[in-house]
Amino acid sequence: MSEPFLGEVRLFANNYAPRGWMFCEGQILNINQNQALYSLLGAVYGGDGVTTFALPDYRGRTPIHVSSTIPLGTAQGEANHTLTINEMPQHTHQVAGSSVEPTLSTAANNVWAAATNAYGPAANLQQMNANTLSTAGGSQPHNNMQPYLVMNYAIAIQGIFPSRN
């Protein structure tokens, strides 16, 4: 393997970081002992930027490329999510009924009524009591993760200092 660039991140399928590499787990490092690496990373991933800085933390994360709206070091998203009412499509659970006596005729241009196969005209609709329908759902979070294969991201803490051009 050729000598890596300092700060280069690679995937490793093994369970240890090779010599000159550290897993990307958000470790806090001393600036004085890692000045060249700090000059590349700064305190973007954590640390106080005076005596310490942090490595990127890829645990449970998927890397994406930086953009004008997503700056370097941004960590967002969640592994599990519970939907809120504002995230659901607009819909209704209200049932309207008629005060007119239902018949066993077809449902065309008629509305649902309480008896089996009984329908009434769609005129004179009355909103039913709110207790007519029960609450549904358990308010439990759902898994929000894309399909994945777990490997180790590691960053070169020794290597060639990358030039800008």
Automatic annotation (TrEMBL):
Domain of life: Bacteria
Segments forming domain Baseplate structural protein Gp10 C-terminal: 73-151
Gene3D superfamilies noted in UniProt: Phage tail collar domain
SUPFAM superfamilies membership: Receptor-binding domain of short tail fibre protein gp12
Pfam families: Collar, Gp10_C
Domain Phage tail collar, chain residue ranges per copy: 7-63
Protein name (record): Tail Collar domain-containing protein
Taxonomic classification: Bacteria, Bacillati, Bacillota, Bacilli, Bacillales
